[in-house]
Design brief:
702 residues; alpha+beta; Alpha-Beta Plaits; 21 strands; 53% helix
Length: 702
């Protein structure tokens, strides 16, 4: 934020310097009187009659800031500059309603007539549709200077001020033809840049005071640009099209100020009664502004529109006086804002009005200077407000953080205890952060890999132990293999006796890695059991991937985290098949297809089976990575030949399958699966396959 503030300040300073330098660069000859001239009270004189009046009989007409009667016609003689190095000058009559410029060089009899004026017919002007008063006059280099007369009149009953400026051709396009060009450019550039800056800050902070402040600056920008500044003078279009924008900005300045103050003080929250009164007045003022704009656009009745807006300005001052008293009680921010507003309202605007009424030179500078001071004050107030809000926010955050840390410590203790009963991963899947947030019926459907682990011949083992020994044995076993599941991103959903049901929410690879790690841990555990004279244990692992519903089941008095799906049953069947096919790890074809790179693991096809409870057959696979090195290497070496034998077996070519299974058994007699398939193939060859043989083995047991 500090970097942005410095950047926009540098841009404003640069634009001010450019504007001031542009104003200083212009080669301008200013003539503000007194002028020699004639007052034509009847408006009947022509140029020939005026030009023949001797100089001694010409009257002296004071120039700016003296104001003259707009009902009379004035003839002024303007002294042309010499052209040492420039052969064209532009003569501008400042704020002249109707003007005819008469130019005649020595030796000429006829006058060249150039018509101009703010309210002259656009089609008769030198520059079509331009509303300023200026004409080009060609003056030869080192040649004679022409005699120039100007006939001036008004139609809108505004007082007439006489000022003339000669602009050289080289800088005509670089100046706004106003002696205050540099001041206007610097002021408008500052308003524009600060307005854009506050818009950016608003979108960053969403604090409405910045937005209303930017609108306030935009209204000031429009007023100065179109009503009193460059766009009122330069040839950008017809005055009827441009001037209303200035009056629109003037009318909306106080509306935006009211909205800015309302947001800054947060009147909607801190002062609801006065907030309603203020918003009612804002809507009333918007209605009046709409009416004045209609007057300007339809009838171009500037006087009536100005009278209405000045009347509303008096009401604005009365409203501000009441609000100042109310706001001043709201603290430091409001007091600074009141001081800035009072400076503009009672000092700057008053001086500008007095200067306009009494034609005091440069009186508008008072108003612009006061607005600059106000802008600086408002910027400081906004910065102070944001600083206070930031300090309050940080203090509240510190207090909240201390409270939250204390609460989190208590909740972490609760969650730590409950997490041993309800896995945190399960809660996360339900979109809950704590077990305290869970309610009956919460559930979510996901595609999950389910793992079942079971100890082989556990009943025989349990019969040899006391209940306490059995209890200690299960905890020792589960305490070793359980962490392997968590290490691979899974979690234990349920312990049932000697069995484990685990879930893996990510890719199926994690389940195979966990199963492989569990057998490595089990081999080390069995080695320790052998040293103590205890019987080694063996386990089977079944894995299946599919959709299931994870949720909270039970009743209002007793709930637990559970899963409901055929996927769970199928995974349990996979674990049961490990016994039938003499395998350690069996996975379904769903899990196999879910592997991004199956070659990462040592896998071989086991069979096509139709498990109990399912009508569709499944291809099942064995992960050979769980076996010790020798059997694993032997079975991987015969993997291709074994798969070829299976294809013959499934297709009913039992002579070929029997021949291949004989070879495989001879190569690796330690693999009981090969002998099992060899015997089955011989029986099929001898007795014949069923009529509906499709290679699928129907499993009757679970």
């Amino acid at each position: 934020m500090n970097l942005s503030a410095n950047a926009y300040k540098m841009l404003i300073l640069g634009l001010m310097l450019v504007g001031i330098s542009a104003g200083l660069k212009a080669q301008v000859v200013r003539q503000e009187g007194p002028f020699e001239g004639v007052v034509d009270s009847l408006g009947t004189l022509d140029i020939h009659e005026v030009a023949q009046v001797p100089s001694a009989e010409l009257g002296s007409i004071e120039g700016y800031p003296t104001a003259y009667d707009p009902t009379l016609v004035y003839w002024l003689r303007v002294e042309a500059p010499s052209a040492d190095s420039i052969n064209k000058w532009f003569l501008q009559g400042y704020t002249v309603g109707l003007a005819d410029f008469y130019v005649r060089f020595p030796g000429q009899e006829e006058w060249t007539i150039l018509s101009s004026g703010t309210y002259s017919d656009p089609d008769t002007r030198i520059w079509n549709r331009s509303h300023f008063t200026a004409v080009p006059i060609q003056i030869p280099i080192d040649g004679p200077t022409p005699e120039v007369w100007v006939r001036i009149s008004e139609i809108d009953h505004n007082p007439i001020h006489f000022r003339f400026y000669w602009h050289d051709a080289q800088v005509w396009g670089l100046t706004d033809h106003d002696p205050h060009a540099g001041i206007y450019m610097a002021f408008l550039g500052m308003c524009l840049m600060m307005g854009l800056y506050n818009i950016v800050v608003f979108f960053m902070t969403r604090f409405w005071a910045f937005f209303h402040y930017a609108l306030y600056l935009l209204c000031v920008f429009l007023f100065v640009l179109f009503a009193v500044g460059p766009m009122r003078q330069v040839p950008f279009g017809e005055v009827r099209l441009l001037l209303p924008w200035g009056y629109l900005g003037f009318g909306c300045i106080n509306i935006c100020y009211f909205l800015f103050a309302r947001s800054l003080i947060d009147m909607k929250r801190t002062m609801p009664f006065w907030n309603q009164i203020l918003m009612g007045y804002v809507w009333l003022k918007l209605t009046v502004i709409a009416a004045t704009q209609m007057l300007i656009y339809w009838d171009f009745d500037l006087n009536t529109a100005l009278n209405i807006e000045f009347a509303m300005l008096v009401v604005d001052v009365c409203v501000l006086m009441v609000l100042y008293v109310v706001w001043f009680r709201q603290g430091f921010i409001a007091r600074v804002m009141v001081m800035g507003s009072a400076l503009v309202t009672f000092v700057g605007l008053s001086l500008a009005a007095i200067g306009h009424i009494y034609a005091i030179p440069n009186s508008l500078i008072f108003f612009l200077s006061a607005i600059i001071v106000e802008i600086i004050l408002f910027s400081l107030v906004l910065g102070y407000r944001m600083k206070k809000e930031e300090e309050e926010r940080l203090a509240a955050e510190r207090k909240q953080r201390i409270y939250q840390e204390t609460l989190n410590q208590e909740l972490s203790k609760v969650n730590s205890v409950f997490g041993r009963f309800v896995p945190h991963e399960f809660l996360k899947s339900l979109g809950k952060d704590s077990v305290l947030d869970v309610k009956l019926g919460d559930g979510v459907e996901k595609v999950v890999t389910v793992m079942f682990v079971d100890i082989r011949s556990y009943t025989t083992l349990a019969e040899q132990m006391t209940p306490r020994e059995n209890f200690n044995f299960l905890n020792a076993y589960l305490g070793r293999v359980g962490p392997a599941i968590k290490a691979q991103g899974g979690f234990v959903n349920q312990y049932y006796g000697d069995g484990i049901m685990a879930l893996f929410l990510d890719a199926p690879e994690a389940s195979l890695k966990a199963a492989r790690d569990m057998f490595q841990i089990l081999d080390a555990y069995n080695a320790a059991r052998k040293e103590k004279g205890r019987i080694p244990i063996s386990i089977g692992i079944g894995i299946h991937t599919g959709p299931l519903l994870m949720g909270v089941i039970g009743d209002t008095l007793r709930m637990e985290a559970g899963v409901v799906s055929d996927t769970v049953n199928t995974a349990a069947r996979m674990e049961g098949l490990t016994k039938h096919y003499h395998a350690r790890i069996v996975l379904s074809e769903n899990t196999f297809r879910g592997l991004s790179d199956p070659d990462t693991f040592g896998l071989r096809v086991l069979a096509k089976v139709r498990v109990k409870g399912r009508s569709n057959p499944l291809e099942i696979y064995e992960c050979l990575d769980a076996w010790p090195d020798h059997p694993r290497i032997m079975r991987l070496a015969s993997k291709a030949q074994f798969q070829e034998a299976l294809q013959h077996y499934w297709s009913g070519r039992f002579s070929e399958s029997t021949r291949l299974f004989d070879q495989l058994v001879e190569q690796d007699p330690s693999d009981p699966l090969l002998e099992q398939y060899r015997i089955s193939s011989l029986n099929m060859l001898a007795e014949g396959a069923p009529v509906d043989w499709d290679g699928v083995t129907q499993m009757q047991a679970k």
